Amino acid sequence: MGESNFDIINARVTFKNIPIHKIEEFSFKDLTTACETFKTISDVSECLIIQNAFRVEVFMVVNLEKGDIPDARRSEGKNLTINRIKKTWESLTELDAYDLDHFDQILEVYRNTDVYLRLLRLETGLDSIVVGREEILDEIKESISYAKQAKTAGQVLDKLFDSSIRIAARIRDSTGISKGTISLGDIAVKTVEEKIGISGKHVLLIGTGETAAMVAMSLNKKGCAFDVTSLIIERATSFSKILGGKPVQFEDVLSGFDKFDIVFVATTADYFLINYDKLKLVMQNKKKGTLILDISDPRAVDEKVSKFPGMKLMFRDQVSEMYEEDAQARKGKVPAVEEMISKEVPIIEATMKRLHAEPLVKDVAVTVDSLRKKELEKALQMLGETDEKKIKIIEELTKAVVEKIVSIPVNNPKKASEQ
């Protein structure tokens, strides 16, 4: 048998690689079952999953035996590990043929130092849909708690996330990257709320992209129910499963447009989705007002729509000034966050290296302490010592000597990493 060791692997699918409405297809319906299934991969001893509307991330601890098998540090081992991860992921979801064919381009796989770097970027909010987003820390803590309850996370992942979360919190506080974070969705919803109120209104969201996701998140915070639509109903349906809202056919939206009090339009279409002619029949006799806020880029609503009785039409440039100022301010803080992360990654690396040594150190400690007790007993018999206070002093002295000797293998990796 070779020296026991482990790799930490992070496999993930995020909004940076696929549209948000597709995240649901890669998500796991039962996190406990998913963690347990990933643990059935050869040598995987721990598993934790972070899953929200914008990402699905699997963290695994892979135990390795140097010299015995082609492990994941060799090219053939890397391919073997990635293939097993993909096959397991596929077995836990219902991906369509297109996603299966393109899984290689969609799935990101990192290990060890790269995992630490990307985990800190995630926890500090650099990899969030809104830079500095604070909610991600709470979501990660919930994932840790869930994995512990399911008994799929252990010493290694506990240490990794405990260390990284404390570091990320310190970076957030010192740089202010999260201070006053607002999204375009927050601004949009706040604007409408101040104009006509939002409680009790019939609200429609058109779009399933990143901007639409921000609006949905803000509506959810307000406890506001809403319908969601897209030109393709499957997109609206998948979007609603992870971000709320009732999916509605786009054709039904147009024919029943007069029923909505508030309409948020957040698409990336390069033409007018909503125009005067499409709404003329249904809107010309509407009795009460409607507010449309088009935050699409480019605009997706024709200005002629404002001619309908009681219609109020607003565009992105009328509400985005505050958001743009906040976004630019946070963008200016990113280099400082990145610099701090680069300095902290080696510290996490040293922390995890110490875990490599601890199993061996514990075995040595048990053996040495057993010898200590036997030799102490012999020495006390030779001395004929019966004074309880003196015996206690001698015993504590021998314990201190053993502890200092045994601690050397644990401390060495840290010293080496700091040189």
How would you sum up this structure, described in words?
Mean pLDDT is 87; it is low at 66-77 and 413-419. By secondary structure, the protein is of the alpha/beta class. Helix 9 crosses helix 10 (210-221). The two termini are 31 Å apart. It has a six-stranded parallel beta sheet with strand order 7-6-5-8-9-10. It is built from 15 helices and ten strands. The chain has helices at residues 20-26, 31-38, 75-92, 97-101, 103-106, 113-124, 135-150, 155-175, 184-196, 210-221, 233-243, 250-255, 276-283, 321-383, 388-418; strands at 4-14, 44-52, 55-65, 108-111, 203-206, 227-230, 246-249, 262-265, 290-294, 311-315. The longest helix has 63 residues, at 321-383. It is elongated and about 110 Å long.
Helix-strand blueprint:
Layout: E1 4-14, H1 20-26, H2 31-38, E2 44-52, E3 55-65, H3 75-92, H4 97-101, H5 103-106, E4 108-111, H6 113-124, H7 135-150, H8 155-175, H9 184-196, E5 203-206, H10 210-221, E6 227-230, H11 233-243, E7 246-249, H12 250-255, E8 262-265, H13 276-283, E9 290-294, E10 311-315, H14 321-383, H15 388-418
Parallel strand pairs: 5-6, 5-8, 6-7, 8-9, 9-10
Antiparallel strand pairs: 1-3, 1-4, 2-3
Please describe the structure with a list of short key phrases separated by commas or semicolons.
disordered C terminus; 4-stranded antiparallel beta sheet; alpha/beta; 15 helices; 6-stranded parallel beta sheet; 419 residues
Number of strands: 10
Strand line-up across the major sheet: 7-6-5-8-9-10
Give me the secondary-structure category: alpha/beta
Estimate the helix proportion, in percent. 55-70%
Compute the separation of the termini in Å.
31 Å
Give the mean pLDDT: 87
Largest beta sheet, briefly? 6 strands, parallel
The tally of helices reads 15
Percentage of β-strand residues: 5-15%
Question: Mind telling me the C-alpha Rg?
Answer: 29 Å
Unreliable spans:
66-77, 413-419
Helix-strand sequence? EHHEEHHHEHHHHEHEHEHEHEEHH
